Amino acid sequence: MSSNSSTIDSAIREAFGSFDHTVRFRISFNNKPFFNGSDLRPSTLINRPKIEVGGDDLRVCYTLVMVDLDAPNPSNPTLKEYLHWLVTDIPATTDASFGREVVSYEGPRPSYGIHRIVFALLRQFKRNNIFIEPEVRENFSTVTFAETFNLSSPVAAAYFNCQRETGSGGRRFFN
């Protein structure tokens, strides 16, 4: 395993704890494929991404969570996890547009540092079981949310780095 893929795994595990990639999960921004660990700027994130969910049984539903692990800044992430998007009741073999948007999409706009933005797909054991929307986006906890609504640990996840439009550099990975 390369240091880059282990860093991706650690970012995903930091947010969600255990993680078992068992469902195909494809993300594209502005009709361009997204790859784990990509560096994206806010201008490419204005419109919500297309999220395609695999599987083979339309009766199985998933919840999609998109969070920022480094809000308001990576040195002092006092608002982590910042909730950027929450969609429930996404049937397998479809995309997020078939689900119910509980928290509307808000594109990341970091003002300081390089932020890790993470997507997670959690299996629902019952359709329409998420009936309360979070009151605030700040300090959201995916793990607590999953426990409250009896969701699985992530069955698919992905992450990218995002910094302000005029930012320079990127995350440095060392062994």
Description:
This is Flowering locus T 1A. It holds the Pfam family PBP. It comes from Gomphichis scaposa. It is a single chain. By secondary structure, the chain is mainly beta. It has a domain at 10-62 and 73-137: PEBP-like (Phosphatidylethanolamine-binding Protein, Alpha-Beta Complex), CATH 3.90.280.10. It is 12% helix and 33% strand. It has helices at residues 3-16, 142-148; strands at 25-29, 32-33, 38-40, 50-53, 61-68, 82-91, 100-103, 115-124, 151-162. The strands form two sheets. It has a six-stranded mixed sheet with strand order 3-9-8-5-6-7. A hairpin with a 2-residue loop joins β1 (25-29) and β2. The chain starts with a helix and ends in a 13-residue tail after the last strand.
What is the fold's blueprint, element by element?
Blueprint: H1 3-16, E1 25-29, E2 32-33, E3 38-40, E4 50-53, E5 61-68, E6 82-91, E7 100-103, E8 115-124, H2 142-148, E9 151-162
Parallel strand pairs: 3-9
Antiparallel strand pairs: 1-2, 1-4, 5-6, 5-8, 6-7, 8-9
